[in-house]
Amino acid sequence: MVEMNKILDINPVDLLVTVEAGVITESVSKAVEHLNLFFPPDPGSMKSSTIGGNIAENAGGLRGLKYGVTKDYVNSIEIVLPTGEIVNMGSNTVKAVTGYNFVDLICGSEGTLGVITKATLGLLPIPADRASILSFFKDMTDAAKTVIDIVAQGVITATLEIVDKVTINAIEDFLKIGLDRTVGAMLLIEVDGQKGATEIEADIVLKVCKSNNALSVRKAKNSQERDKLWEARRAALSSLSRIKPSTILEDATVQRSRIVELVEAVDGIAQKYNIMIGTFGHAGDGNLHPTILTDLRIPEEAEKTEKAIEEIFKATIALGGTLSGEHGIGITKAQYLKLELSKPVYDLMEKVKNAFDPNNILNPGKMKCVWNS
């Protein structure tokens, strides 16, 4: 699909852009920025992820708290069904409730129901002003509490990212940008909007950080410093992957009010199994990425890793969370579906799959779970 990479139409009046499925995410915003518009979903892999892939996984990103995820910006799609028909779903009007919402069904279906070939996406005006804030804390608990308090103060930030000590050190080893290695966690925060409002919100964020025992907190002085901070966050996974031969990125997501408990649970699991876990993610919407760093070639390490992953999932579900906020289930996570879904709900999923794909030719095995009789 990567060769289907054309931007077909830009409609600045209706705030829409129509693209083929292989268009790279970052390319969409670059194509419309001269019109003072942008495409809000921004997965960490935006320089390589495609629009078709984003729709298939319902990808999120750093701006999820304020701006939502991919499905919130997909108006209509063209897909090829497994039975050969080319069909169009959705509408490019602001409101449309004609028939079932098949577009949202396809978003997040992980390529099991159809092959996406084209999509019309929503755009937004670029905010007039923005401010980025970096705050360091002695531990992840203080940082996570700060996340809850910022939203409680009525500030919906554009981004609200958390990074733990393991990940801070990995980023600093990789980029050497002067991050403080002695701290236990950091928050990267951005507010945007009209200039006066942005200044007020930034001041509130600074005060909340300080009231939650921030070791230091500062606002980026200019766009260059701002870009440097966000470069660090986007390098989190690539930095961690340099530490050990095997990197297992997970996608645990809870309500924002439970994020402190999830952070503490992951830390406890790391200590229990004596394994290295670097945790970072979109704390503002409760989506963390505990990343296990290990060597799966060693049987003992592989066994510990498997147990740790299962405990992370069980802890997440116990906190009222979900197995995946944005990365999907795929094949390796499918065995854990029974932790979250009831058998009747899973049976409905199978019926939908069979209706779209009676010959089971699209991604067979994805999201396939076996219930014990």
So what's the CATH class of the domain at 7-125? Answer: Alpha Beta
Number of strands: 14
- The coarse overall form would be globular
Assembly state of the chains shown: single chain
Low-pLDDT sequence parts: none
- Write the element-wise H/E pattern from the N-terminal end onward: EEHEHHEEHEEEHEHEHEHHEHEEHH
Strands of the biggest beta sheet: in what spatial order?
Answer: 11-8-10-9-13-14-12
How would a crystallographer describe the biggest sheet?
Answer: 7 strands, antiparallel
Looking at the structure, the CATH topology of the domain at 7-125 is Uridine Diphospho-n-acetylenolpyruvylglucosamine Reductase, domain 3
Radius of gyration, Cα only, in angstroms? 21 Å
Query: Would you tell me the structural class of the helices and strands?
Result: alpha+beta
Number of helical elements: 12
End-to-end gap: 40 Å
Summed up, what is this model?
35% of the residues lie in helices and 22% in strands.
